[in-house]
Amino acid sequence: MERVLWRLLRDRRLDGLKFRRQLPIGRYVVDFACLRHRLIIEADGPYHDEARDAQRDAWLAGQGFRVLRFKNDELNNPDRVLGLILEACAVPPSPLAGEGVGEADG
């Protein structure tokens, strides 16, 4: 399902936003990231450890990222998923962390 989501996000297909795939952030590798909006998208397959995911998400949040997780069945409704991603990108980055300042990668 990750491939399906990548087809929708790559090459700035979603509202001109640049997403990177399999991006290392600290000790983690995230499925997709839009650095301009400090947004991480995770496509969760059937085998996910919720406690480990919560710990990972908390660490990423501490670094100024927001994390959206989608289960495989949610990806069957791509319009809804893309709408939620756009909604998350509409929230302005926090100026306290300097997020979004001078970033040119859309």
Detailed description of the structure:
The model is unreliable at 97-106 (pLDDT under 50). This protein has helices spanning 2-9, 50-62, 78-90; strands at 20-25, 28-34, 39-44, 66-71. The chain is α+β, with helices and mostly antiparallel strands and 106 residues long. Strand 2 and strand 3 form a beta hairpin. The chain has a 4-stranded mixed β-sheet, with helices on both faces. The chain has one domain: Endonuclease, Chain A (3-Layer(aba) Sandwich), CATH 3.40.960.10. The chain is built from 3 helices and 4 strands.
Question: What's the tally of helices?
Answer: 3
Characterize the main sheet.
Answer: 4 strands, mixed
Can you tell me the CATH architecture? Answer: 3-Layer(aba) Sandwich
Give start-end ranges of low-pLDDT stretches: 97-106
Tell the overall outline.
Answer: globular
What does the secondary structure layout of this molecule look like, with pairings?
Layout: H1 2-9, E1 20-25, E2 28-34, E3 39-44, H2 50-62, E4 66-71, H3 78-90
Parallel strand pairs: 3-4
Antiparallel strand pairs: 1-2, 2-3
Give keywords.
106 residues; alpha+beta; Endonuclease, Chain A; four-stranded mixed sheet; 4 strands; disordered C terminus
Overview in brief:
The chain is an alpha+beta fold and 106 residues long. The chain has three helices and four strands.
